[in-house]
Amino acid sequence: MAIQSEKMEIDVSPGTPAMPGTVAREAMARPSRRRWLVIGLIFVVTLINYLDRLTVSVLAPVITEAMKLSNLQYASLATWFLLAYTLSQSLSGRIYDRMGIRRGFTLSVVVWSLSAMAHAFVRGLGGLSVLRFCLGLGEAGNWPGAAKVVAEWFPVRERAFAMAIFNSGAAIGSIVAPPLIVWLQLTYGWQGAFLVTGGLGFCWLMAWWALYRPNESPVAAPVKAGVVPSKSDEEAPKWLALLRKKEVWAIVLGRVLVDPVWWLYISWLPLFLYKVHGFDLKKIGLFAWVPYLAADAGSLVGGLASGYLVKRGWRVQNARRATIAFGALLMPAGILAARSESPFSALALIGLVLFGFQVWINNVQTLPSDWFSSKTVASVAGLGGTGAGIGSMMFLLLTGWVVDHFGYTPILTAAGLLAPVGTLLMFALFPNREP
């Protein structure tokens, strides 16, 4: 059976004969048109994920004043979230590899949406800390789940762009969050803000169960048609087996050092504008979204750039490396933002940092699907997320202490140096060969 077009759908109608192994592998490589609907759903749930995550951050000036929190105590809220997020990344990766994408996302969204809504009923730091922990447990699953979606539904040359679409959900969520959450707080109070943003996840779940068809992915369709995968394809390798691979350590250690840059700004930007540049809550709602618009552009540019280089004949690894290096070289702009006297210059420079980060992370998150089978991708992505969580948790706690004692300049300077160092370490560990 000849393959006529890469866009051709797999015939899985009743009575279709089982395909030979070679043809099955070819069929599994064919992209389905439905992949764009699927990645669109992942984009939307990622946007909701960030709305729920950022509600506390946007309302930080109100919450810290109401509860009389120091910078270190506020940092502890982000740390509780990141502790759960870190633990749940690897666990969620295994859950998605075993349960499948449809049920895995359902579990994640239910946990984080209930936790987000419950924020409306707490009155103290202890209760808020517990709910931030529960929120992190659920939200972590979004990323290994999305990596698995990309691996199962998209061919290699489109994976970075598919990652860009879903990652842009984080950036768009960050753009929408400040004005939306400030408006909700001013209109309905902070309790109403948590109830509305938390409830969006349940609306998404109705669309997810109505529209997602797991048996229509290019990976699942040959199985439905009668081709039985080998045992090696059915079972995900153990964590210890994965941790023996240099490729896994390259991803993990790179994210340990570089992901804290993103977490620094999404956790501290409103307070930075409030305390350093004198922004009130309305100004935060009007202007704090601007750097995330740049981040969204970076996500799309990062996905398109490496895909373009692959189409131009570059080796996949070289295309990824060039794009990752470009993103890393932009992130030291945060050093200048720390020293800017104008809040708008600082926002522009922070926007450049977040543009670079999204270029970087979009391609780093594509590496598991380049190097590992679909049954392993979520586990590897989860380990990378665990590394990101460990590094970010330590850096955010350090941020609280440093800001209390020395202000924001030292910590923004340190963050500006992390990306080049982490990227060089990652390149040193990755084997110089094609996936």
Shape field: globular
Low-confidence stretches: 1-29, 222-234
CATH superfamily: MFS general substrate transporter like domains
The share of residues in helices is over 70%
Describe the structure.
- By secondary structure, the chain is mainly α.
- The protein has a single domain (31-429), classed as MFS general substrate transporter like domains (Growth Hormone, Chain: A), CATH 1.20.1250.20.
- It is 80% helix and 0% strand.
- Helix 4 packs parallel to helix 6 and helix 15 runs antiparallel to helix 17.
- The longest helix has 56 residues, at 156-211.
- The chain starts with 20 loop residues before the first helix and ends in a 6-residue tail after the last helix.
- 54% of the residues are buried.
- Residues 38-434 form the Major facilitator superfamily (MFS) profile domain.
Summarize the topology.
Layout: H1 21-29, H2 35-58, H3 60-67, H4 71-99, H5 101-118, H6 125-139, H7 142-153, H8 156-211, H9 220-224, H10 231-234, H11 239-242, H12 246-276, H13 281-287, H14 290-311, H15 316-330, H16 333-339, H17 343-364, H18 367-371, H19 374-406, H20 409-429
Subcellular location: Membrane
InterPro entries: MFS, MFS_dom, MFS_Na/Anion_cotransporter, MFS_trans_sf
Domain Major facilitator superfamily (MFS) profile: 38-434
